[in-house]
Design a protein that fits this description.
about 180 residues; three-stranded antiparallel β-sheet; alpha/beta; 3 helices; six-stranded mixed β-sheet; PyrR_bifunctional; binds uracil; binds 1-O-pyrophosphono-5-O-phosphono-alpha-D-ribofuranose
Length: about 180
């Protein structure tokens, strides 16, 4: 049977959610001094870039962005790189910085756990906060986001797909339900 798909966020909803998150980051941290956004590959990088761009527009200050590839830190795949491998992070120094990790979907929390491991191997951030576009629940680790675009209660049989212009044909979030 073909899966059933529903759009739960369109381009406008995504744009508004990212603008709100940018304001929330500024309000919670009273600005963005010593702050760096780090996107988790793949779509987390584009989200980090978009939020950083809004922060620059609102505050008129620089907002550095880095990229994290956590492939070698996952606990469900064979570790193929040594810890602290330079290829894991492309970013300015994170030592004593406030790091805002960005990802598209938060589910079990294992990706974020791996991202925190990768970061801490490379320095000691002053603080790590987490921004996600969609929190779909079903956490397997004690991880919670500081900034959420949309909370989407899901069944484990459903799948959330985030599509972004930078790599997909359009901007949207869809929920996919396998028909019985
Ligand atoms: O909380 P978790 O259970 O770890 O799930 C969330 C992760 O799953 C997806 O990544 P995926 O591994 O599918 O790779 P992708 O980003 O390349 O799609 C998504 O982009 C998140 O990073
Ligand atoms: O539904 C899910 C679960 C994990 N990662 C996703 O991108 N979607």
């Amino acid at each position: 049977m073909n899966p059933e798909k529903h759009v739960i966020m369109d381009e406008t909803a995504i744009r508004r959610a990212l603008t709100r998150i940018a304001h929330e980051i500024l309000e919670k941290n009273k600005g963005v001094d010593d702050t760096i956004m780090i996107g988790i590959r793949t779509r987390g990088i584009y989200l980090a870039n978009r939020i950083a761009e809004r922060i620059r527009d609102i505050e008129g200050v620089p907002m550095p962005v880095g990229e994290l590839d956590i492939t070698s830190y996952r606990d469900d795949r064979v570790r193929i790189q040594s810890a602290g491998s330079a290829s894991a992070l492309r970013a300015p120094d994170i030592q004593d910085k406030r790091v805002i990790l960005c990802d598209d979907v938060l589910y079990t929390g294992r990706t974020v756990r791996a991202a925190m491991d990768a970061l801490i191997d490379l320095g000691r951030p002053k603080m790590i906060q987490l921004a996600v576009l969609v929190d779909r629940g079903h956490r397997e680790l004690p991880i919670r986001p500081d900034y959420v675009g949309k909370n989407v209660p899901t069944s484990k049989l459903e799948q959330i797909e985030v599509r972004m212009n930078e790599v997909d044909r359009n901007d949207e979030v869809v929920i996919i339900q396998q028909r019985g």
